[in-house]
Design brief:
GO molecular function, one term (chains A, B): proline dipeptidase activity
Oligomer: homodimer
Strand content of chain A: 15-25%
Domain Creatinase N-terminal (chains A, B): 8-138
Largest interface: A-B, 34 and 34 residues
Helix content of chain A: 25-40%
Shape of chain A: elongated
Pfam families (chains A, B): Creatinase_N, Peptidase_M24
CATH class of the largest domain in chain A: Alpha Beta
Number of domains of chain A: 2
EC number (chains A, B): 3.4.13.9
Protein name (chains A, B): Proline dipeptidase
């Protein structure tokens, strides 16, 4: 694996050099993990003029490392607690004779940036921008394989829940049970707080589980994901409780299902992100639900649950092959509830069979 | 409750005015919640020259609000998604005729700060520093009552776990079960990721649960906490599995117990934080465990699990009455395991009975 990380650092270094900086300091934890294999709490990665270094806090209390560190990368631990690895790394960059250092200004606080400036006043600090996030958008097959395993785990956890009795249980309990099952099946943990919504809460994006109990006739919507080796996937499904869904429930479900299918079918290398969004949004818009729609209908996933690209009306850019995204349109009607259907897929060319669906739980309307 | 938040804002305003700023922008979520009753995702609080405003993101996707907002506080929601409430609030401050605006430079990123500067170039941005964190250190009785309920919930969850069979279960399962029980008993959720360590993992601060199973003869250490109405408490205990603890286990336990008691007994209004730390650290130091000790032996708790004050060798400042802190010395011996005992207490004057223990689970060495 060590070569993978070294190759990623080489690509970043090429970008920095092209931008006029010989050195860069990466501080955002997911970016550190991407380039170094692991992100010990507070650690930063210095791409120096003469060597790369992982600079770690000196506090013995820090949470254990997540991930396996690239063993070819030298590690420098601060000698005592309380020091800031970003400040120490800035000092090291100056020692290596760098004239400028590119930093993650979207992650560093003003106070840390100020401390970095004052430790090496002669060093010019420039903005690295989202260069690492951009490198992270297209995944390699190793990364996709982690997402695939995470999706299998989420499918299993959801499948088991569906076999149990649901009526009378609270949203909170169902969410906790799903999270326990994720871990049972080998997840590092949930990819994000599991959302379970019943009745009027169904179909709300990011709904936090309450003490409301599942009742006959409810819509039940569930959104969960597993983290596996750091990679986070997402699945969302909506079910109906009881033997015979009401007409409005069947109609709304069919509508969201067709919108979600249109979004999935629009995924292709070269497709504009806003066109994918439009494909998923348009059927709901036409049916008169414009004001009940979320701001985005999908997003990238990876080491974070909410990555680039965004599938939204104002999104710029096009999809590439090997980009994993969610497609998750939904409608929530205040007071009544709603439907949300959410899959994680990998963009693949037509010749390879088109988009690869990672979350394979059925999207038929199940009456439970 | 509305008056409580208004009074807090008045105190902050007085500090700002004394510092030469007529307006302040609070962006750190726990600080927003402290001053406004609730912190909708991304919201910032403007203490303006003419009025206070809670400025919220315009995205309909944002996670529902935690806490109950102060209804006397006007709310301004941005009209569309994608806008930054901090930038909008800066603009509003300039509209109100403020000449300078104090901002939380330890929370704002360089990129946001730059955007705020460019939206109102004539406005002087100054650093508010940790003014709100300082206001938060001393709690009122309402806040302490939330911590007390949270501690009761954590005690209950832990007590129930101790009645179940432990041998053969994994650290991960025990941690998940504790978190489920916290929620069962009315917690908003866990106050931090529950830590369960067995055998060689016991006694490690912040240990992340693994698949190791509890075995006869193990030390088992558990650290958990409940969040109740936003307030977070912490309890840690170490047990021994099986009928007869080994001599080294009894000795180590007695030592950590006496250190923790010394720390608790040192809590008093006016006591220097470093003296409390020394009281808890010194027995372990003298017994030869200096290099196995954590960087701090306790810390404040409240809306965040790790607040000021810190109980550490280099800590400045003194304790006040009504400051809740943890006292949590521990020793971890690599390869063998260790002991950690952790309580949440409120500093109270001698005349009121001395420190108030919130986490009342026994600290006898239980053999389970």
């Amino acid at each position: 694996m060590s070569e993978v990380y070294a190759a990623r650092r080489t690509r970043l270094r090429e970008r920095c050099n092209a931008g006029g900086s010989a050195a860069a300091l990466v501080s955002r934890p997911a970016n550190v993990r991407y380039l170094a294999g692991a992100a010990p709490h507070g650690a930063v990665l210095l791409l120096g003029r003469t060597e790369d270094l992982l600079v770690c806090s000196g506090s013995p209390d820090d949470r254990p490392t997540q991930g396996r560190p690239d063993e070819s990368l030298p590690v420098r631990a601060l000698s005592g607690p309380g020091g800031d690895p970003a400040v120490a790394a800035t000092d090291l960059a100056a020692d290596q004779g760098a004239e400028s250092l590119a930093t993650e200004d979207h992650h560093l606080t003003v106070v840390r940036h100020r401390a970095m400036r004052s430790v090496a006043p002669a060093l010019r600090l420039t903005d690295l921008g989202q260069a690492v996030e951009q490198l992270r958008v297209v995944k390699d097959e190793e990364e996709i394989s982690c997402l695939r395993i995470g999706a299998e785990i989420a499918d299993q956890a959801l499948g088991e829940l569906l076999e149990s009795i649901l009526v009378g249980r609270t949203e909170r309990h169902l969410a906790l049970e799903l999270e326990r099952r994720l871990v049972d099946h080998g997840a590092d943990g949930p990819a994000f707080p599991t959302s379970v919504g019943t009745g009027p809460n169904s179909g709300r994006r990011g709904h936090r589980p309450t003490d409301r109990r599942v009742e006959e006739g409810d819509f039940l919507s569930v959104c969960l994901g597993a983290t596996y080796r750091g990679y986070r996937c997402e699945i969302g499904r909506t079910f109906v409780i009881g033997t015979s869904p009401a007409d409005w429930q069947i109609e709304l479900y069919d509508l969201v299902f067709s919108a979600q299918r249109a979004g999935r079918e629009a995924l292709a290398p070269g497709a504009a992100c806003r066109d994918v969004d439009r494909a998923a949004r348009q059927p709901l818009d036409s049916a008169g639900y414009a004001e009940h729609l979320p701001a985005l209908t999908g997003h990238g996933v990876g080491l974070e649950i909410d990555e680039d690209p965004q599938l939204a009306p104002a999104a710029m850019g096009k999809l590439d092959a090997c980009v994993p995204v969610t497609v998750e349109p939904g409608v929530h009607l205040p007071g009544r509830g709603g439907v949300r259907i959410d899959d994680t897929l990998v963009v693949r060319p037509e010749a390879d069979g088109g988009p690869e669906l990672l979350t394979i739980t059925t999207k038929e309307l199940l009456a439970l």
